[in-house]
Amino acid sequence: MAVLKGKYLIASGPVIIQDRKLLVNKDNKDNFYKIPGGSIEEGINDLEKACHKKVHEEINGKIEIIKPLHPRVLWQNPQTGEKMTIILTSYLARLTNPKEIKPMGSTTEIKWLDLDKINEWKHAVSPYTQFLIEKGDIK
After folding, report:
1. Who's near 136: CB < 8 A, 6+ residues apart?
2. How many domains are contained in the chain?
C-alpha cells in the first residue's frame, strides 16, 4: 500500500447546473474557467463543509449539495509540473442565492456556460472540468 509523501493538496467545490447552464468562475491564477471551489485548509475533515465554505468565499454562493461526483487524483501540479498529490472532489449542488453571487477574493469573473455548446468550450475550462464532462457528471 502506497503512503502519500511530500506535498499534497485537497480541493472541494460544487458543480452548479441551472437552466442547462454550468456556473464557472475565473481567478487571477489561471487563464481558464473552473468550477468554484479550491484547496481546503489543514484541520478540515468534512469535504462537504469545505465545499460550502469555498463557494461562499469565491462567489458569495450558498448551496444545497445533491450528490458527490467523480473525484480525481493528480500526481503533479498541472501548472508547474511539480511532483505532488492533488485530490479533487466535487458535488452536484443547487445554488440557493443566485441573485447574490458576485466575484470575491481572487475571483475575477463569474460566467454561466451553455451546456448545449459544451463542445465549443472544452479548451476554455479547467482539466478537472473536462474530466467531469468525460465522466458524464457535467452534461
Report:
1. none
2. 1
